[in-house]
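DM from R.C. (forwarded with permission)

"hey, sorry to bug you on a friday — could you get me a structure for this? deadline for the figure draft is monday and I only need the backbone to look sensible"
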Amino acid sequence: MFAGPIQFLKSAPSLEHLPPPDVAEIAFAGRSNVGKSSLLNALTGRTSLARTSVTPGRTQELNFFDIGTPLKFRLVDMPGYGFAKAPKDMVRKWRYLVNDYLRGRQVLKRTLVLIDSRHGIKDVDREVFEMLDKAATSYRIVLTKTDKIKATELDAVYAAVGDEVRKRPAAHPDVISTSSEKGMGIAELRAAVIESLG
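My reply, with the result:
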């Protein structure tokens, strides 16, 4: 599935710029600096599909990537939420864009919400969970940067995140642990993406 052609389709700064809803979509959401672009690159086996940046909040639009020829599905890279270094009104604009997309997109099969394993779930993540639960939009938690903490700490974070997520009506009960740098959990993530398309 990921071995074939993968290409950037377009950036959508607002809902009227979304591509036609003619194929399934999987969205990636997460706080700024959670490692979203690196994970997208690792998932697709490309080095520079999604732009990685040292400056949090670089992704300011919904970025769509076409997977496969003929087209099988799309990956959607969403603007990071949280501490993006941007003017308040711009942050508000992103929030509306993300909320409207997540709530109203018919072809969205699942949202992968990325959580930095070093920091665990923050209140801003819970706001996103709430929104997805209210919209009955299926989502799954993916821990990132798991190579950056000790195994015992990771076990504790994994257990705490799992406990919280299982109480959420729209959340998938299983959490995936990944490291883009070390390639940990990438095969499992690919399987989860393909399974959610079914």
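R.C.: lifesaver. The longest helix spans residues 88-104.
me: no worries. The chain is about 35% helix and 20% strand.
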